[in-house]
Amino acid sequence: MTLQGKVALVTGSSEGVGRAVLEGLTDHGADAVINYHSNAEAAETVRAACQAKGVRAITVRADASSPDGVNALFDAAVKEFGRIDIVVANAGIEIVNVRLADTTDEQFDRLNQINVKGSFLVLREAARRISDHGRIITISSNTTTVPQVGVAAYGSSKIATNYLVRVLALELAPRGITVNTVVPGPIDGAGIFTDPTVNVEYRADLIKQIPIGRLGTTADVAGVTNFLASDAAGLITGQQIVADGGMH
After folding, report:
1. Which of 36, 154, 163, 202 is catalytic?
2. Residue 248 confidence (pLDDT)
């Protein structure tokens, strides 16, 4: 599998899942557009790691949940590389282990502003600017497929994005562009599990629910994304690829 000559833009790619996804794409030769919101130092670390592989990489500070930010991000990518071939909508926030009755208006509004509107803005701009035969991928969550206590607001925000993907896949199919969703389960080292000492009981309870017996990793998500970005996945579109260790 090679992505040589391709340009990959990944939102929220200075750390966590986004970083793993972007570095996975560059492992296969793609040039990189690294998006960050506040941590410039982390973004520069990712850029250096990408350039050490012999690919080109730029960092772009932009709020991926605002129209101006998304436009600026895509503008920078096109100005530097002249094209965009792979777009991964990864940026988002996570609010879990909060029961619906305890979810505040502010939490609900923020989730939908970032997870729903942000994804909509990135998908819309990708549809306008991505090259023919390109790849658009969103990173979702198996809270959309497995009802779980404490994830009502978060899961519903991800479900909305999944539907956008299914429709956009139909709209862009005539151009040979595929649009898919990666649906991971709980990810060790990301979200609420960034600190292994936090939510120890919650972590243990989740692992009991995973038939394969472990949390996912950022590398697991990157592996699925690499496949969907490749020529091997040219007939896969409008799909949700679940990688949750069998929870679903």
Report:
1. 154
2. 78
Digit-coded pLDDT (tens) for 205-229: 889 999 999 999 999 999 999 999 9
Query: In the predicted model, what is the mean pLDDT of the chain?
Result: 94
Angstrom CA distances, 58 to 62, 73, 247, stand at 13, 11, 37
Bridge pairing between strands 178-184 and 7-10:
unpaired
Asked whether the whole model's pTM tops 0.85, one would answer yes
Can you tell me the distance from the alpha carbon of 17 to that of 10, in angstroms, rounded to the nearest whole number?
A: 10
Active site residue 202: no
The radius of gyration of the chain from alpha carbons, rounded to an integer in Å, stands at: 17
Domains of the chain are: 7-243 (3.40.50.720)
CA dist 86 → 27, 37, 108, 154, 157 (Å): 14, 20, 30, 26, 23
Q: For residue 32, how far is the Cα from the chain centroid?
A: 15
Helix axes 152-172, 118-129, angle to 10 degrees: 10
Residue 198: pLDDT over 70? no
